[in-house]
# Entry
Amino acid sequence: MSKITLAIVKPDAVKAGNTGAIIDHIIKAGFKVKAMKMVRMTKESAMGFYEVHKERPFYGELVDFMCSGPCVPMMLEKENAVAEYRKLIGATDPAQADEGTIRKLFATSKAENAVHGSDSDENAKLEVAHFFSRGEILSNG
Ligand code: ATP
Ligand code: MG
# Structure
């Protein structure tokens, strides 16, 4: 089991002023932030990032949403990071997310759901590489 995952504080949460509160939840849950930046994704970047969803009816809406303002991608480290982080954020639809999860607390809809989390170790590696070069990732500490 790999120890890393890629998280994003999505544009809705950045716009609402929840970036700090969300990072606080992540750190208090025992994750280490190994890389972080604030970026406004281009359409090309968002299309590439969510390419797995390109046949889905919500793809265009999702790409536009991810480019609608700045977002904060982070590489996180913890044992069993992918599963642990998805447990912390809760279900895609905040109406179905467990109490206390980040999406329950900060998401407003299934589309504008505050955060992203990788869904596998393989995708975590690809998603980290989408945002960060080697020199932008802490190698220890
Ligand atoms: P993410 O990949 O962002 O962590 P997820 O893995 O919980 O979310 P996915 O099925 O991968 O959910 O969907 C990717 C994103 O697409 C969702 O987080 C949400 O922003 C958007 N999305 C998913 N389903 C819908 C839908 N039915 N209508 C609108 N947007 C949707
Ligand atoms: Mg997903």
In short: The mean pLDDT is 97. Residues 21 and 106 are 9 Å apart (CA to CA). The beta strands are 4-9, 32-36, 72-77, 115-117.
